[in-house]
Design brief:
- The complex is a heterodimer.
- Chain A starts with a helix and ends in a 5-residue tail after the last helix.
- In chain A, helix 2 runs antiparallel to helix 9 (about 320-345).
- In chain A, the strands form 2 sheets. Chain A has a 5-stranded antiparallel beta sheet.
- The radius of gyration of chain A is 33 Å and the shape is extended.
- Chain A is about 30% helix and about 15% strand.
- Chain A has helices at about 1-20, 50-75, 130, 135-140, 145-150, 170-175, 205-210, 250-260, 320-345; strands spanning about 40, 80, 100-110, 115-120, 180-185, 190-195, 195, 265-275, 285-290, 305-310.
- By secondary structure, chain A is α+β, with helices and mostly antiparallel strands.
- Chain B is α+β, with helices and mostly antiparallel strands.
- Chain B has 40 helices and 34 strands.
- In chain B, the strands form 6 sheets. In chain B, strands 14-33-32-31-15-27-30-29-28 form a 9-stranded mixed beta sheet, sandwiched between helices.
- The chains are: A alpha+beta, B alpha+beta.
- Chains A and B meet through helix 1, strand 1, helix 2, strand 4 and helix 3 of A and helix 4, helix 11, helix 32, helix 33 and strand 34 of B.
- Chain B: Belongs to the cation transport ATPase (P-type) (TC 3.A.3) family. Type IV subfamily.
- Chain B: Keywords: ATP-binding, Magnesium, Membrane, Metal-binding, Nucleotide-binding, Translocase, Transmembrane, Transmembrane helix, Transport.
Chain lengths: ~350, ~1100
């Protein structure tokens, strides 16, 4: 404070000095639009002439979009089957008790366009913070250094009880979904396997950039001195025995699993119904699904389901968006009427 | 600051004896103006910064984030903003420090006891003898020893000390003056000085010099203070008495108190409230976590790593984790942004051309940059009169001499007098005739004016006289005497030369009984060339009248009549008297005077007694009347301010009649007022009764409960009275009214009146009145003044404004804002103040809204992620949200926004009222903000939630994953708050549009960059969101969701605002509607009438006070566009 005071005093001396020396107008501020706060500007006002028509327009537009969304969403066919098998009367009622292979049948109506095969989990907290951080991005990027010393984030799935590093480490990888499915179409009493396509079900960026295998050839060498995750039955380099390029960290199922869900109820893409054989979608008929039941969810009252669905321009079936647009649109129109009444009443009281 | 290890009672020092002086450990002359040096800067500055609560809080958060079990966010989310804030503040501190370092200018000084050596002035020590040359700054408090000028005089300018620009004289003691510039003698000088300890009184000094066994009295006349400049003096020598921080200048500087605005205080309360709310939210979530862990988490262990299987401990950790995540409710950037906004708005004041006064080349100056928004909330203005409402250019207008009044309207020819000042105009020829007729009273009258003053004369060329007067009154009187043939030509310490009707006379000056605020008079005792001893006295009429000889009673009556007449014209009056002295008595008196003058104890008291003794039985000569013209635009300004519901109290030292008259002429008191009460009681009871009577006549039912006031609640509410009233109270009564038992009575009565004038007020009373209003009224006060007597009031009020005018700079130096003319006050308040307040409130409302909305989304998400302190957004977004994505738009709004322009602000002063009532930002509006945020956050979480639930991309792939959801929510949030900003903003300049759109563009640019392949390959673990932007933002349903949330967030706001505007329009709404009408008329009217209307609107713009517009607006058919 002393200092600022002191400065000001100096300023004033110089000011008076100028006056004495007849240096006129040296202190006059600049005459610019900025310093004089006269910048040209647009000053919108919420007048009735803008607000009421605006509401009507927005309302109508929303109703239009809403109808389109609603109709589209309605046209999408979805078939869901819960196969947790902890309740009697549901499909796969005995699945949870018996091991390995189970199957159940269902009807599928004629679909339009390609059909996707999802598995769904409920009450499964992939968005739990410590679950989400329990991975090592550097390791998954294929940096060998992190194979032998995984990040602390992975604990307690960084090392096994023998202090051997786990690759891939962490909870997410460890808890990878490992039920497998086979789909059969029953044509004239005989079961005919529907070929499923597991290529390109993960994001392009995940497959090509975010996850990488080490360059070792064969891939197995990179995993020397490491162990597979505790819940896994096969090591990472043997996830897909039929396709050597679909192994390690770039295995499509692994990639899909690693993209953790935002909400505790989620579904993930399992396979596509092969478009080579069924270019127009899945024909109507009876199908049966054969499940290899490995994944235990009933312990935390989770649910498992399979979902068959086709998609539209707006993605999967979600009626909410269409309804929301319809509701908001109608509200806008309604409010514009209310506002008009209020405006009229308070502006022209004599004419009432 | 200086730390004194012992409290110094008396200072002792010996010239040229460093060892002796060093034993007292007096401060050296080095003033450590810079706080830091290169090495200490970082640690010291950081230490200081972390003493601020907000910074300390973020440091604490940072510590929490380092604990892995708690850390819910990466460290960089806190470090980046913290570093930014610290850097900005440190840069500011550093520049301040560098500026002050430049103060340590390299002055080289000649120190006598180190012969042939010059030293930097900072090495000077107490007891050194130093040489000063012409135009040099005095850099320590010195005792003057000798000078180059005759009679050991030096001339100094004290502008830096008290702002007065006239030259002043100092004179050395003859005994030291004999030392001359003889270095040998000076080096051998070994006088000892005993004087007062360091203090801050600039106008007083007491000390004794002991030299060669003799004692000599030292007073202010022999002292050069640090901050003076030597003028018209070739050289002088001085003995250093006080150095560095102990100089009077530096002792004076530390006094100013730190002022805070009411918004600041409100903000502090709100921050505490927010902390409480944060704790509440975290507790709720911690409890939630406990329940979840108990019911679900313990079952979920198969897939979830659990370090401790203890729900209570987990919920404890969760509490702290959520403290980290939800910390954005206490935004660190808030304080920095507030500072920036205030700084910007202060610059606008400095830059305003309409507050620049060309005649003195003075721009307005915001000397404090922290009080701007308070300018928009002023309820009481306390104004000085002289120099503030008036120009402080004094004109000798009328006089009464020996019962005859002079000063009717004629132009007088002064050609008989070659020494006349050509600018002087007087209108009564009779006076000139009287002078020419050698009327003895008239001659004595002007002789007195020529002799009794402290003016300095400069005669650069023969016949060209310049007077340097400390007060313009004195200058005016001496100039008057000069023109009437009694020309003051020069003075020495013991003589005054005047030219009386063309003949040179030299009067021996025997004593000056100087002026001060208590004495209110000054006298000189002179011996005329004929050897006659006389005392001449001039002063306030009441004071002089008490000291007159009985023989004057008749003359007194006539003169009083004249005085009242003068005061009625708003003139400042002084009474003049003289007396002849008896030689013997005087000799005895001057002896006692000398003794008193050298006394160390109670010197003032003894002198006052002596003065009192000799200034009695005076003979009245007459009185002078000086006109002080009103400044331009004062009545209009006062009218505008009172329309804005600002109450104006004038506090003046003038007579009651003068003050009243000025009150009428500047529109403060009006003829159409119902009544103007005059309180002039001379006892406590009288004053009480008068105040009560006044109140009863204003509001008959108010008097009964007059005594009642709850002691607990110390706030006096405004009482509404019908009609307009004025109150005039004089100094005596005010002293009673300010006593504790009566102050409430006074305040209640005064606050019911539209205008209050207090006359005959002392500087202290000015401050007391301000303090009284501050104490009992929940209102913001502003004091405006120009002189040293206003300093206390300026410092006491919430905001002090100084008029940078003629009466020195002291008021300006202690003020918060300064400008040259009173009329600029309306622009400062109605335009700058209003805008600053509006902008600050809009800023705060919006800032809290955007941060609460941002934070509450986390709260809702907690219920869906097992209360695990998982963030909704990407960590980078959390880091940059306040710093990059939303910082500039909100700053743009709070630097450029204006609801109506300055012309309209002047036209509708009522627009100022919401500020006084705290309408734009209060606890209530803060609460509304929080509710609004709550709604927005619900929309922002649940709409994306429902829209993404179980959905997939248009190619069947995953989109309901966490990263896509995060991106979707944060994009929705940014759109929602940006659109909300658009609705807050009422003035869209190119800059603000650029800021808003630029920030959105920046968001997408930064997001795409951070989520790009390149960034990921450089640092895989820092940028895990790779590809999310590309994969998500290419989906139509994502954009439909963003659009839906944005619309849903603002729809209720628009609806509410529109309905409120229709149902209960505020003054702002009405004005904007008028503006719109005018605009619509301008655009849509047929061509032939269009020109006319444009013309009308133009004329309206050029003349802000016109009221013709209202009529125009009423003629327009009300059918809207």
């Amino acid at each position: 404070h002393i200092l600022s005071h002191y400065n000001h005093k100096h300023k004033y001396i110089s000011l008076e000095f100028n006056v004495k020396n007849q240096l006129k107008f040296t202190n006059r501020p600049d005459n610019t639009a900025f310093t004089q706060q006269r910048l040209p500007a647009w000053q919108p006002i919420l007048s009735a002439g803008i607000v009421i028509p605006g509401f009507v327009l927005i309302g109508l537009a929303f109703i239009g979009v809403g109808v389109a969304l609603f109709v589209t969403s309605r046209s999408i066919q979805v078939l869901e089957r819960d196969y947790t098998g902890d309740e009697s009367g549901t499909p796969c009622a005995s699945c949870a008790n018996s091991n390995v292979q189970n199957s159940f049948g269902f009807c599928f109506p004629q679909s339009q366009g390609p059909v996707f095969f999802y598995y769904g989990l409920s009450n499964y907290f992939q968005n739990y913070r410590r679950y989400g951080t329990s991975k090592d991005d550097n390791q998954l990027y294929g940096v060998l250094k992190y194979f032998t010393s995984p990040s602390d984030n992975c604990a307690p799935y960084a090392y096994n009880s023998n202090n051997q590093p786990i690759v891939p480490c962490g909870s997410i990888a460890n808890s990878m979904f490992n039920d497998t499915f086979k789909l059969y179409q029953t044509v004239n009493g005989t079961r005919q396997e529907v070929s499923l396509d597991g290529k390109g079900i993960a994001w392009w960026t995940d497959y090509n950039i975010k996850y990488r295998n080490p360059t070792n050839n064969p891939l197995k060498d990179a995993f020397n001195g490491t162990v597979k995750p505790i819940y896994w039955s096969k090591p990472a380099y043997e996830l897909d025995t039929s396709d050597p390029s679909n192994n390690g960290f770039v295995n499509q199922d692994f990639l899909v699993w690693m993209r953790r869900a935002a909400l505790p109820d989620f579904r993930k893409l399992y396979r596509r119904i092969s478009q080579d054989k069924y270019p127009d979608g899945l024909p109507a008929g009876n199908y049966s699904l054969e499940i290899t039941y490995n994944y235990r969810v009933y312990r935390f009252s989770g649910k498992k389901k399979v979902v068959f669905s086709n998609v539209s321009w707006m993605g999967g079936k979600n009626e909410f968006l269409g309804i929301a647009y319809l509701v908001v649109g109608s509200m806008c129109v309604f409010m514009s009427i209310v506002m008009l009444i209020v405006y009229a009443k308070f502006k022209f009281p004599d004419e009432e | 600051m200086v730390v004194l290890f012992f409290s110094e009672l008396e200072r002792k020092l010996r010239a040229n004896d460093r060892e002796y002086n060093l034993s007292f450990k007096y401060a050296t002359n080095a003033i450590k103006t810079s706080k830091y040096n290169l090495f200490t800067f970082l640690p010291l500055n950081l230490f200081e910064q972390f003493q601020r609560i907000a910074n300390a809080y973020f440091l604490f958060l940072l510590v929490l984030q380092v604990i892995p079990q708690i850390s819910s966010l990466s460290w960089f989310t806190t470090v980046v903003p913290l570093i930014l804030v610290l850097t900005v503040t440190a840069a500011k501190d550093a520049t301040d420090d560098i500026v002050s370092t430049f103060e340590n200018v390299f002055f080289s000084l000649f120190i006598v006891n180190k012969r042939d050596r010059t030293e930097k002035w900072m090495n000077v020590q107490v007891g050194d003898i130093i040489k000063l040359e012409n135009n040099q700054f005095v850099t320590a408090d010195l005792m003057l020893l000798s000078s180059s000028e005759p009679l050991n005089l030096v001339y100094i300018e004290t502008a830096e000390l008290d702002g007065e620009t006239n030259l002043k004289v100092r004179q050395a003691l003859p005994v030291t003056g004999d030392l001359g510039d003889d270095i040998e003698k000076l080096a051998d000088f070994n006088g000892e000085v005993r004087c007062e300890p360091p203090n801050n009184r600039l106008d007083r000094f007491k000390g004794v010099l002991t030299f060669a066994g003799q004692k000599y009295s030292l007073d202010n006349e022999k002292i050069l203070l640090r901050g003076c400049t030597l003028r018209n003096t070739e050289w002088c020598f001085g003995l250093v008495l006080f150095g560095g921080p102990e100089t009077k200048l530096m002792q004076n500087c530390g006094k100013s108190t730190f002022k805070r605005t009411s918004i600041d205080r409100l903000m502090n309360i709100l921050v505490i409230f927010i902390f409480g709310f944060l704790a509440f939210m975290c507790s709720v979530l911690a409890i939630g976590n406990y329940m979840w862990e108990k019911n679900e988490g313990s079952q979920f262990t198969v897939f979830l790593p659990r370090l401790q299987d203890n729900p209570a401990f987990s919920s404890f950790l969760t509490f702290w984790s959520y403290v980290i995540i939800l910390n954005t409710v206490v935004p660190i950037s808030l304080y920095v942004s507030v500072e920036i906004i205030r700084l910007g708005n202060s610059f606008y004041i400095d830059w305003d051309r309409k507050m620049y006064f060309a005649r003195s080349d003075t721009p307005a100056e915001a000397r404090t940059t922290t009080l701007n928004e308070e300018l928009g909330q002023i309820k009481y203005v306390f104004s000085d009169k002289t120099g503030t409402l008036t120009q402080n250019i004094m004109i000798f207008n009328k006089c009464t001499i020996n019962g005859k009044c002079y000063g009717k309207i004629y132009t007088v020819d002064f050609s008989f007098n070659p020494l006349a000042d050509t600018r002087f105009v007087f209108h009564d020829h009779a006076l000139v005739e009287a002078v020419k007729l050698e009327n003895p009273e008239v001659h004595t009258f002007f002789r007195l004016l020529a002799l009794c003053h402290t003016v300095m004369a400069e005669e650069k060329k023969e016949g060209e006289l310049f007077y340097q007067a400390q007060s313009p009154d004195e200058g005016a009187l001496v100039t008057a005497a000069r023109n009437f043939g009694f020309v003051f030509r020069s003075r020495t310490p013991d003589s005054i030369s005047i030219v009386e009707m063309g003949k040179q006379h030299s009067y021996e000056l025997l004593a000056i009984l100087d002026f001060n605020n208590v004495r209110k008079r000054m006298s000189v005792i002179v011996r005329s060339p004929e050897g006659k001893l006389s005392l001449y006295c001039k002063g306030a009429d009441t004071i002089i009248y008490e000291r007159l000889h009985q023989s004057c009673s008749k003359l007194m009556d006539v003169t009083t009549e004249h005085l009242n007449e003068f005061a009625g014209d708003g003139l400042r009056t002084l009474a003049l008297a003289y007396k002849d002295l008896d030689e013997e008595y005087f000799n005895q008196w001057i002896q006692r005077h000398h003794e008193a003058n050298t006394a160390l104890e109670d010197r003032e008291g003894k002198l006052d007694e002596l003065y009192e003794e000799i200034e009695k039985d005076l003979l009245l000569l007459g009185a002078t009347a000086i006109e002080d013209k009103l400044q331009d635009g004062v009545p209009q300004t006062i009218e505008q301010l009172s329309k804005a519901d600002i109450k104006i109290w004038v506090l003046t030292g003038d007579k009651q009649e003068t003050a009243e008259n000025i009150g009428y002429s500047c529109n403060l008191l009006r003829e159409e007022m119902n009544d103007v009460f005059i309180i002039s009681g001379n006892s406590l009871e009288d004053v009480r009764q008068e105040l009560r009577n006044a109140r009863t006549s204003m509001k008959p039912d108010a008097a009964e409960n007059s005594v009642f006031l709850p002691e607990m609640d110390k706030v006096v509410t405004d009482e509404v009275v019908s009609g307009e009233y004025g109150l005039v109270i004089n100094g005596h009564s005010l002293a009673y009214a300010l006593e504790h038992s009566l102050e409430l009575e006074f305040l209640r009565t005064a606050c019911m009146c539209k205008a209050v004038i207090c006359c005959r007020v002392t500087p202290l009373q000015k401050a007391q009145v301000v303090e009284l209003v501050k104490k009992y009224k929940k209102a913001v006060t502003l004091a405006i003044g120009d002189g040293a007597n206003d300093v206390s009031m300026i410092k006491a009020a919430h905001i002090g404004v100084g008029i940078s005018g003629q009466e020195g700079m002291q008021a300006v130096l202690s003020s918060d804002y300064s400008f040259a003319q009173f009329r600029f006050l309306q622009r400062l308040l109605l335009v700058h103040g209003r805008w600053s307040y509006l902008r600050m409130c809009k800023f705060l409302r919006y800032f809290f809204y955007k941060n609460f909305t941002f934070t509450f989304v986390h709260f809702w998400f907690a219920f869906f992620c097992g209360f695990s302190a998982q963030t909704v957004y990407d960590e980078w977004f959390i880091t940059l949200y306040n710093l990059m994505y939303t910082a500039l738009p909100v700053l743009g709004m709070s630097l450029f926004d204006q609801d109506v322009n300055d012309v309209w602000s002047f036209q509708h002063p009522q627009l100022y009222v919401p500020g006084q009532l705290n309408l734009y930002f209060s606890k209530k509006s803060f609460f509304k903000c929080a509710l609004h945020s709550c709604y927005s956050s619900l929309v922002l979480f649940f709409i994306p939630y429902a829209a993404m639930y179980d959905t997939v991309r248009d190619d069947g792939k995953d989109i309901a994953d966490y990263q896509s959801f995060a991106l979707l929510t944060q994009t929705c949030l940014l759109f929602a708050v940006s659109i909300q900003l658009g609705f807050e903003m009422s003035y869209w300049t190119a800059v603000t549009i650029f800021f808003v759109l630029g920030s959105l563009a920046m968001y997408f640019a930064v997001t795409f960059t951070m989520y790009s392949n390149g960034m990921f390959t450089i640092l895989p673990s820092a940028f895990p969101f790779i590809g999310t932007a590309r994969n998500t933002l290419s989906q139509p349903n994502v954009w439909l969701t963003i659009f839906l949330t944005s619309i849903l967030c603002v729809l209720p706001v628009v609806t509410c605002r529109f309905l409120m505007m229709q149902l209960c329009p505020t003054i702002n709404d009405k004005v904007s509607e008028e503006m719109l009408l005018l605009f619509v008329l301008d655009v849509f009217k047929p061509v032939e009438t269009r020109g006319k209307i444009i013309l009308q609107s133009r004329s309206l713009q050029s003349n802000p006070v016109t009221s013709s517009f209202r009529i125009n607006a009423d003629i327009i058919p009300k059918d809207g566009p």
